[in-house]
TrEMBL record:
<protein>
    <submittedName>
        <fullName>Transposase</fullName>
    </submittedName>
</protein>
<dbReference type="InterPro" id="IPR036515">
    <property type="entry name" value="Transposase_17_sf"/>
</dbReference>
<dbReference type="Pfam" id="PF01797">
    <property type="entry name" value="Y1_Tnp"/>
</dbReference>
<feature type="region of interest" description="Disordered">
    <location>
        <begin position="213"/>
        <end position="239"/>
    </location>
</feature>
<dbReference type="GO" id="GO:0003677">
    <property type="term" value="F:DNA binding"/>
</dbReference>
<dbReference type="GO" id="GO:0006313">
    <property type="term" value="P:DNA transposition"/>
</dbReference>
<feature type="domain" description="Transposase IS200-like">
    <location>
        <begin position="9"/>
        <end position="124"/>
    </location>
</feature>
<dbReference type="InterPro" id="IPR002686">
    <property type="entry name" value="Transposase_17"/>
</dbReference>
<dbReference type="GO" id="GO:0004803">
    <property type="term" value="F:transposase activity"/>
</dbReference>
Length: 239
Protein backbone atom coordinates (compact mmCIF):
# COMPACT_ATOMS: atom_id res chain seq x y z
CA UNK A 1 0.00 0.00 0.00
CA UNK A 2 1.46 3.39 -0.94
CA UNK A 3 2.19 5.67 1.99
CA UNK A 4 0.03 8.72 2.56
CA UNK A 5 1.39 11.96 1.19
CA UNK A 6 2.46 14.35 3.93
CA UNK A 7 0.18 17.29 4.75
CA UNK A 8 2.13 20.47 4.01
CA UNK A 9 1.07 23.96 2.99
CA UNK A 10 3.01 27.14 2.48
CA UNK A 11 2.87 29.57 5.42
CA UNK A 12 0.97 27.15 7.71
CA UNK A 13 3.05 26.23 10.80
CA UNK A 14 4.31 22.66 10.90
CA UNK A 15 5.36 20.61 13.92
CA UNK A 16 7.69 17.79 12.97
CA UNK A 17 9.61 15.00 14.68
CA UNK A 18 12.64 13.17 13.33
CA UNK A 19 13.61 10.11 15.38
CA UNK A 20 16.72 7.97 15.47
CA UNK A 21 16.38 4.52 13.93
CA UNK A 22 14.81 2.13 16.46
CA UNK A 23 14.86 5.09 18.87
CA UNK A 24 18.62 4.83 19.11
CA UNK A 25 20.81 7.84 19.89
CA UNK A 26 21.61 10.28 17.11
CA UNK A 27 23.61 12.78 19.21
CA UNK A 28 26.67 11.54 21.11
CA UNK A 29 28.72 14.63 22.03
CA UNK A 30 28.33 18.41 22.31
CA UNK A 31 29.92 18.92 18.90
CA UNK A 32 27.15 16.82 17.35
CA UNK A 33 24.46 19.14 18.69
CA UNK A 34 26.38 22.24 17.58
CA UNK A 35 26.98 20.84 14.10
CA UNK A 36 23.33 19.89 13.66
CA UNK A 37 22.15 23.37 14.67
CA UNK A 38 24.69 25.03 12.38
CA UNK A 39 23.47 23.02 9.40
CA UNK A 40 19.83 23.45 10.41
CA UNK A 41 20.34 27.21 10.27
CA UNK A 42 22.03 26.95 6.88
CA UNK A 43 19.53 24.66 5.20
CA UNK A 44 16.47 26.34 6.71
CA UNK A 45 17.57 29.56 5.02
CA UNK A 46 18.20 27.83 1.71
CA UNK A 47 14.86 25.98 1.75
CA UNK A 48 12.78 28.97 2.83
CA UNK A 49 11.84 27.75 6.31
CA UNK A 50 11.49 29.89 9.44
CA UNK A 51 12.16 27.91 12.61
CA UNK A 52 10.12 29.16 15.58
CA UNK A 53 11.08 26.52 18.16
CA UNK A 54 13.25 23.43 18.44
CA UNK A 55 14.68 20.87 20.82
CA UNK A 56 17.41 18.33 20.17
CA UNK A 57 16.96 15.29 22.39
CA UNK A 58 19.38 12.37 22.59
CA UNK A 59 17.48 10.26 20.06
CA UNK A 60 15.08 12.63 18.31
CA UNK A 61 14.45 16.19 17.17
CA UNK A 62 11.38 18.44 17.38
CA UNK A 63 10.98 21.47 15.10
CA UNK A 64 8.22 24.05 14.77
CA UNK A 65 8.53 25.95 11.52
CA UNK A 66 6.74 27.83 8.77
CA UNK A 67 7.66 27.22 5.14
CA UNK A 68 7.58 29.56 2.15
CA UNK A 69 6.64 26.70 -0.19
CA UNK A 70 4.84 23.38 0.16
CA UNK A 71 8.07 21.53 -0.60
CA UNK A 72 10.30 23.57 1.71
CA UNK A 73 10.11 21.40 4.85
CA UNK A 74 10.86 18.23 2.91
CA UNK A 75 13.81 19.86 1.17
CA UNK A 76 15.16 21.09 4.50
CA UNK A 77 14.94 17.73 6.25
CA UNK A 78 16.40 15.80 3.32
CA UNK A 79 19.45 18.05 2.98
CA UNK A 80 19.96 18.32 6.74
CA UNK A 81 19.51 14.61 7.35
CA UNK A 82 21.99 13.62 4.66
CA UNK A 83 24.59 16.12 5.82
CA UNK A 84 24.31 15.06 9.44
CA UNK A 85 24.41 11.32 8.65
CA UNK A 86 27.60 11.83 6.65
CA UNK A 87 29.11 13.69 9.59
CA UNK A 88 28.12 11.00 12.13
CA UNK A 89 29.33 8.13 9.95
CA UNK A 90 32.67 9.83 9.35
CA UNK A 91 33.15 10.96 12.96
CA UNK A 92 32.21 7.67 14.61
CA UNK A 93 33.39 5.34 11.83
CA UNK A 94 30.00 3.81 11.38
CA UNK A 95 27.68 3.04 8.47
CA UNK A 96 24.02 2.35 7.93
CA UNK A 97 20.80 4.11 8.83
CA UNK A 98 20.71 6.82 11.47
CA UNK A 99 17.12 8.09 11.13
CA UNK A 100 14.03 5.89 11.37
CA UNK A 101 12.67 7.04 8.00
CA UNK A 102 10.34 9.87 7.05
CA UNK A 103 9.86 12.57 9.61
CA UNK A 104 6.40 12.83 11.18
CA UNK A 105 4.51 16.09 11.13
CA UNK A 106 1.23 17.97 11.52
CA UNK A 107 -0.10 21.31 10.34
CA UNK A 108 -1.02 23.61 13.22
CA UNK A 109 -3.88 26.04 13.72
CA UNK A 110 -2.02 29.16 14.78
CA UNK A 111 -4.33 30.99 17.16
CA UNK A 112 -5.23 28.02 19.37
CA UNK A 113 -2.24 25.71 19.18
CA UNK A 114 1.00 27.37 18.06
CA UNK A 115 2.26 28.66 21.40
CA UNK A 116 1.07 25.46 23.09
CA UNK A 117 3.13 23.47 20.61
CA UNK A 118 6.17 25.66 21.33
CA UNK A 119 5.78 24.86 25.02
CA UNK A 120 5.34 21.17 24.25
CA UNK A 121 8.61 21.19 22.30
CA UNK A 122 10.67 23.17 24.82
CA UNK A 123 9.31 21.16 27.78
CA UNK A 124 10.52 17.87 26.29
CA UNK A 125 13.68 17.68 28.43
CA UNK A 126 11.58 18.30 31.57
CA UNK A 127 9.12 15.51 30.72
CA UNK A 128 12.08 13.23 30.04
CA UNK A 129 13.47 13.94 33.51
CA UNK A 130 16.69 15.40 32.14
CA UNK A 131 16.24 18.83 33.78
CA UNK A 132 13.87 20.45 36.25
CA UNK A 133 13.24 23.54 34.10
CA UNK A 134 13.60 24.16 30.35
CA UNK A 135 16.10 26.97 30.99
CA UNK A 136 18.55 24.33 32.20
CA UNK A 137 18.65 22.54 28.84
CA UNK A 138 21.13 23.91 26.32
CA UNK A 139 19.84 22.39 23.10
CA UNK A 140 16.45 24.06 22.72
CA UNK A 141 14.96 27.39 21.69
CA UNK A 142 13.75 28.22 25.22
CA UNK A 143 16.77 30.42 25.87
CA UNK A 144 15.91 32.49 22.80
CA UNK A 145 12.16 32.74 23.27
CA UNK A 146 12.12 33.15 27.06
CA UNK A 147 15.46 34.75 27.88
CA UNK A 148 16.53 36.68 24.80
CA UNK A 149 19.63 34.65 23.97
CA UNK A 150 21.07 35.33 20.52
CA UNK A 151 20.42 32.61 17.95
CA UNK A 152 20.37 33.16 14.19
CA UNK A 153 18.24 30.06 13.74
CA UNK A 154 15.07 31.12 15.57
CA UNK A 155 12.60 33.39 13.76
CA UNK A 156 9.70 34.49 16.00
CA UNK A 157 6.18 33.82 14.79
CA UNK A 158 3.75 36.74 14.70
CA UNK A 159 1.79 35.27 17.64
CA UNK A 160 4.96 35.31 19.73
CA UNK A 161 5.67 38.89 18.67
CA UNK A 162 2.15 39.86 19.78
CA UNK A 163 2.91 38.74 23.36
CA UNK A 164 4.50 42.12 24.19
CA UNK A 165 5.38 45.59 22.99
CA UNK A 166 9.13 44.92 23.08
CA UNK A 167 11.53 41.99 23.44
CA UNK A 168 11.63 42.20 27.23
CA UNK A 169 7.83 42.19 27.44
CA UNK A 170 7.54 39.24 25.07
CA UNK A 171 10.09 37.20 26.96
CA UNK A 172 8.36 37.88 30.28
CA UNK A 173 4.97 36.94 28.87
CA UNK A 174 6.44 33.82 27.33
CA UNK A 175 8.00 32.72 30.62
CA UNK A 176 4.60 33.11 32.27
CA UNK A 177 3.20 30.50 29.88
CA UNK A 178 5.48 27.93 31.52
CA UNK A 179 4.14 28.41 35.03
CA UNK A 180 1.47 25.83 34.35
CA UNK A 181 1.99 22.35 32.94
CA UNK A 182 0.46 21.39 29.64
CA UNK A 183 -2.80 19.50 30.04
CA UNK A 184 -2.49 15.77 29.31
CA UNK A 185 -5.35 16.01 26.83
CA UNK A 186 -3.57 18.71 24.86
CA UNK A 187 -0.34 16.72 24.82
CA UNK A 188 -2.29 13.75 23.52
CA UNK A 189 -3.75 15.85 20.73
CA UNK A 190 -0.31 17.04 19.68
CA UNK A 191 1.12 13.52 19.68
CA UNK A 192 -1.78 11.98 17.76
CA UNK A 193 -1.78 14.68 15.11
CA UNK A 194 1.99 14.59 14.64
CA UNK A 195 2.39 10.82 14.59
CA UNK A 196 -0.60 10.41 12.28
CA UNK A 197 0.24 13.24 9.86
CA UNK A 198 -3.05 14.99 10.55
CA UNK A 199 -3.95 18.57 11.44
CA UNK A 200 -3.81 20.03 14.91
CA UNK A 201 -6.80 22.33 15.19
CA UNK A 202 -10.57 22.62 15.33
CA UNK A 203 -13.07 21.24 12.83
CA UNK A 204 -13.17 24.43 10.77
CA UNK A 205 -9.39 24.43 10.41
CA UNK A 206 -9.42 20.75 9.45
CA UNK A 207 -12.07 21.42 6.80
CA UNK A 208 -10.03 24.31 5.38
CA UNK A 209 -6.91 22.18 5.14
CA UNK A 210 -8.82 19.27 3.60
CA UNK A 211 -10.23 21.58 0.95
CA UNK A 212 -6.80 23.05 0.24
CA UNK A 213 -4.99 19.72 -0.15
CA UNK A 214 -7.86 17.78 -1.66
CA UNK A 215 -7.99 14.94 0.86
CA UNK A 216 -8.90 14.08 4.43
CA UNK A 217 -6.82 15.85 7.08
CA UNK A 218 -8.22 14.09 10.17
CA UNK A 219 -8.33 10.43 11.26
CA UNK A 220 -11.05 8.33 9.69
CA UNK A 221 -13.57 6.37 11.69
CA UNK A 222 -12.51 2.77 12.47
CA UNK A 223 -14.17 -0.14 10.72
CA UNK A 224 -15.25 -0.82 7.18
CA UNK A 225 -17.56 1.54 5.34
CA UNK A 226 -21.19 0.51 5.62
CA UNK A 227 -22.51 -1.41 2.66
CA UNK A 228 -25.33 0.31 0.86
CA UNK A 229 -28.12 -2.23 0.32
CA UNK A 230 -29.82 -2.42 -3.05
CA UNK A 231 -33.63 -2.14 -3.10
CA UNK A 232 -35.33 -5.56 -3.18
CA UNK A 233 -37.58 -4.59 -6.09
CA UNK A 234 -36.91 -2.38 -9.05
CA UNK A 235 -40.46 -1.04 -8.68
CA UNK A 236 -39.49 0.85 -5.51
CA UNK A 237 -38.94 4.57 -5.82
CA UNK A 238 -36.40 6.04 -3.45
CA UNK A 239 -36.86 9.57 -2.16
Amino acid sequence: MPRRARLTLANVPLHLIQRGNNRQACFFAEEDYRSYLEWLTEYAGKAGCQVHAYVLMTNHVHLLLSADRTESAGELMKALGQRYVQYVNRTYQRSGTLWEGRFRSCLIQEEDYLLACQRYIELNPVRAGMVAHPAEYRWSSYGVNAQGEADALVKPHSLYVALGLDNAGRQMAYRELFRDELEPGLMGEIRRATNGNFVLGNERFAAQISAAVGRRATPGKPGRPRKIEEPKSSNLFLT
